Amino acid sequence: MTRTALVVRGGWDGHHPVEATELFLPFLRDSGFDVTIEEDPQVYADADRMAATDLVLQSVTMSQASNEAVKGLREAVAAGTGLAGWHGGIADSFRASSDYLQLVGGQFATHPSKHPDEVHGDQTDNYLEYTVEITDLGRRHEITAGIDDFRLTTEQYWVLHDDLIDVLATTTHPVQPYHPWHRPITSPAVWTRDWGQGRVFVSTPGHSLDVLQDANVRTIIERGILWAAR
Fold this sequence. Notes:
The chain is of the alpha/beta class and 230 residues long. The protein contains 9 helices and 11 strands. The protein has a 9-stranded mixed β-sheet. Strands 5-8 form a two-stranded antiparallel ribbon. The longest helix is centred in the last third of the chain and has 14 residues, at 215-228. It is globular and about 55 Å long. The protein starts with a strand and ends with a helix.
């Protein structure tokens, strides 16, 4: 039986929404999905189309979505449509919509930068080497089972979140003399969320194409896509 995947992409170009989602289109098709692509989240307001969608793969950083679109997405997920994505394409989307933030369960707050002496005014100012640590739940979960803790050099997301999420991996922001916080902060790096009859999957690693092609990150995202789908 063929399932349907709706890829919704756009927003800030710095996350390469077209090229990033293109990396996963062959996987979706090989996994038996009939794939369609939209460049505008207003598609979420089409109730009939959303009811026929088994998976939404979203890559829309910042940008805006209408109240009708967010309502449509929430209703679709509650009815069983899966929602999956990575980095700012799902965890930093539609900042003005509290209803969207509640659906996803975590929101980008910042990505701490390097020492001021190492800052040059480009994206690499925020590329830090850090560890993604698999949680006890993550070691048992089908998305992350068999994956050990791993290191990345990229943006390390600091995420505001609630406790309705199931955290499969975390990352810890250390105390640095040039930052204003006074104790280490642990943020979820990979999480899932049950919402009505639907499932939500989020991976915060995924800033750039090379990170998405890291073996661990790619495996987690591919498994997360399949887990989330109806």
